[in-house]
Fold these 2 entries.
Entry 1:
Amino acid sequence: MAKKEMKFDADDGLIVGEVGPWATEKHERLRKYIQAAGPTRAKYVPPRGWATASYIELYSGAGRSLIAGTNRIIDGSALVAFRAGASSAMPFTDLHLSDLERVNSDAAAQRVKALGGAAQSYHGPADRAVDNVLRSLNPNGLHLAFLDPFSLGQLPFSIIEKMLKFRRMDMIIHVSLQDLQRNLDEYSRVGGTLDIFAPGWRDAVDVRQSMSALRAALIEYWLKSIRSLGTHPATGIPLIVGSKNQRLYWLVFLSSNPLGQKLWNDVQNLNRQGSLF
């Protein structure tokens, strides 16, 4: 298979990724939540607090992306998050950006630096990189993780388990409905993606039901597994659709703090779109 041609931003000479036009909706929700949560972060950072307020990505990309089929380059989630924090009541004290490819996470960190900030860069598979990221966090801090993998197979449940061992770890997770729809048969095989994404699902989900019902049951089992870790998915789980109204993915927000859930529910529904079920 031919290697995909690398593309670069003429403004800074660094690599760019490629995204669909719907990425801007995801980023808008991220931006609004970070700005709304600024006063909460301020409680943990000197002079009011004595800890930190961290931002984490395990699938950061390069920090800038080309919208597919256009010449338009936009900020990626890492830069959206940095700018949103900087314009809020309290910026993030530290950013931790990781990607499978070092060239991407390094580019994202360089772009944050160019904006006047600083970010630690990591690389490697997310289920390994997460250990290095977590070792760098203040256990008493307030943390926000944005997990934006391309597929369900890149989101092992073990990542969520590890991150939620931190007492104050809020998470926004991209869960690909399109991937689940296209690959359900393959993913449900023994040892397949679903065994990694939602371990134990076979003992809890009846596979003898319609595809739509099976998908819903799988996601509900995944959410229940998250609840068992002591945190709670917010009730607002927006469904993002494409330009042809195709169902693409959900954004799932997790927090053990009711205030975090309230803030998310206040900002998540941009266009009165559908939700999870």
Note: The radius of gyration is 18 Å.
Entry 2:
Amino acid sequence: MVGTFLFWLVIRNQDLEEIRSKLVNANWWWALLALMFGFISNVFRALRWNMLIQPLGFNPKLKNTFGAVMVGYLANLAIPRLGEISRSAMLANYEKAPMNKIFGTVVVERIIDVLTIFFLLFIVLLLEYSKMSSMANTYVFQPVGVKLSLLFSQGIIFYLFVTLLFALVLFACWFFITRIKNTRYYLKVKEMMRGFLDGIKTIGNLNNRNLFLLYTVLIWFMYFMMSYVCFFSFQQTSGLGVVAGLAVMVFGGFGWAAPVQGGFGTYHAIVTQSLFVFGIENDDGLAYAILAHATQVFGMLVFGLLSLLLLPILNRKRKEA
């Protein structure tokens, strides 16, 4: 498991007994409060997702949308990005809606989340540029720059090869499509793609854009509160302010977004480094990261498993009808 290996890399040179002692003496009631904020954030996420689905002609029940969101998080703990497919399939099943259209709305949701976290990153850099610019460069801009530099450093032969390969692929696709365009398989795929695009287009057909924006703000405010209240679990981090909480939320979000099961290792490394920038020693920062991460994973496991078990029961009467 990649996440386990990365987590081991993070803790291997740390004083594990000291960190264990800090976790044992931590005030876990603040973690419980963070768990509550996490629950509320997912209620707002379910409400926002419903707004994207309604222009398709469906009005999902909140219990089904919320349950699908939680099952999606549960799936992501096993395989990164599986959650988007899992929650689309689950909601499509219980609401009798086309999965391709539902999946299109999930893609829109993810695009909005990416834009939001980069906007918040800009706010963090604006507020604490001297402290956070190095972090942003190391964990966000530099990885992107490396990928781009690899593309632009291969010379003209590389680009000619890519262009030729792209042209061959286009020709192969054109040749293949002209041969199968009248078959039922082609028509089925075409219909699926059309439904997927319909799902994406719902962002332009919202009934109440201001309410959609409000849900987005509330989702991320709850995420901020999850990070911030956990500061009070430890004496060493209890004095950190709002900006530190915002920075931990943003950079922790990039840790969660890494293609690793449940952000294991990546979240702990980036949050520990974020807190170090604000004067928190590595063992204290790692103790905080473990507590905050464990709280979120616990919520995903509990609410995800409950949703997986309860949704078939709650939808039994509807299915029988």
Note: The chain has one domain: 18-143+154-313.
